[in-house]
Amino acid sequence: MAVYEYEHLGPACSRGRVFEVVQSIHDQPLTVCPDCGGPVRRLISLVGIRTPKTNSELRDLGFTKLVKRDDGVYENVTARDGESRYMRRGQPETLPHLDKTISD
Fold this sequence. Notes:
27% strand
């Protein structure tokens, strides 16, 4: 079940100008208010998107963040236990352990 927002096209009723209705995704959109019978239209709701703000949040979500420090040298600012803090070109042992972060 999803929550949809509807707006009265005419005067608002006791539900208010904009109100929410829980419906199945398969249900047809309402065209009239269930309370007053006035015309309504379904609105496109805003979506809450949260992005990680710190390196530790990125690490906890399974991401690896590399910051370029020199030519061929990157700092792994999200390094986990056992990982090298710096990744150097030509040294595969300094690569992050992706098998620890990628799962099916």
